């Protein structure tokens, strides 16, 4: 971790436009939860559906995409990253710092709102609120690592990330069981399923497999980003 890089990255990510993007979806989730609670449309089936489809399947990957690509992608695109690479800072430290910032942002703008939404909808019933909180957190770490790696590997990271989150996990996942099981969303849902007794929450992946895959994807994304960053030519900073 490098404190200076972390502070600069937080300042860049929390600028006016990016902050609005990070706040928009959590606010929609919270408002929806309050409306459902006030109108007594918050039975356990509806609550689980909101937390899974909106919180885990929509809010989490989109916020992780904004955070994961935003912490390093713009610096690579405009060449500013080269000034950091000329400093005596190991490339893996740069990547780990950027990843840590992305994870903190996901925790603040996805994990906390999902916890608040779960409490508004169901309180402590069936342990659903803390279960989804843990699931969104572990899923957020994996998503962040993947999207940071994408940002280092490609200038089209946002497009590729959207295709993965919206096409592979959401669209194909509803029709192809193989695609559904090979997704961070399902692995995170497996963690949720293990932590709550709410019957509507069901995952297609066994918990040990899901945990192993989450760890493997997180490690692979981090290592790949560090390796690719190491190969960027410092001379292009001129």
UniProtKB/TrEMBL annotation:
Keyword field contains Transmembrane: yes
Organism of derivation: Actinomadura fibrosa
Species lineage: Bacteria, Bacillati, Actinomycetota, Actinomycetes, Streptosporangiales
UniProt name for this protein: ABC transporter permease
A Pfam cross-reference name: ABC2_membrane_4
Keyword rRNA processing carried by entry: no
Residue ranges crossing the lipid bilayer per the database entry: 53-72, 93-116, 128-153, 160-179, 207-227
Keywords associated with the record: Membrane, Transmembrane, Transmembrane helix
UniProt superkingdom: Bacteria
